[in-house]
Specification:
33% strand, 4 helices, single chain, alpha+beta
């Protein structure tokens, strides 16, 4: 039998990735991009290609997600389904991050710019925004950005 503390700590220790969503101004931009054929695998799942293969791939695929940073704020995440080998036109092997098509919005969390991706523990991640919770108020992205700019978020 496990106690509540060990269950919580195991969930908090889950490994994820965090990455800048370059070129997107809003979550809707990400949704539109992932709807295009260029952003999909042959089996129709959303994919993002990155140069490096995560060394902790087995851990990531045990329920990890990729948290997207849109214009300085973590605003959403997608569950990682698998990692595919992708060979570019230049014959270089890259990593295709394959996602569940569902984009899960999160509470906004400020994040400074960085290159590539980083590992990101669940304990450090923002909470999901659940549409079923009618009492939870979500602010427009523009307002979240303004609050971030003045240091509130």
């Amino acid at each position: 039998m496990t106690n509540q503390n060990s269950v919580t700590s195991m969930a908090d220790a889950k490994i994820n990735l965090i990455k800048l969503c370059v070129g997107a101004e809003t979550v809707e931009d990400l949704i539109r991009w992932q709807a295009t054929p260029a952003a999909k695998t042959p089996d129709g799942l959303p994919m993002h290609v990155t140069r490096m293969w995560p060394q902790r791939s087995e851990e990531l695929l045990q329920g990890g997600s990729l948290y997207w940073v849109v214009k300085g704020l973590i605003l959403c995440r997608q569950k990682l389904i698998r990692l595919d080998k992708v060979i570019g036109d230049d014959s270089i092997t890259r990593c295709g991050l394959i996602f569940d098509p569902t984009i899960i919005r999160t509470r906004p969390m400020a994040r400074r710019p960085f290159q590539g991706w980083r590992y990101f523990y669940s304990k450090d991640a923002p909470k999901d925004v659940h549409s079923a919770h009618r009492t939870e108020v979500t602010l427009p992205e523009e307002l979240n950005r303004a609050l971030n700019k003045i240091g509130v978020i």
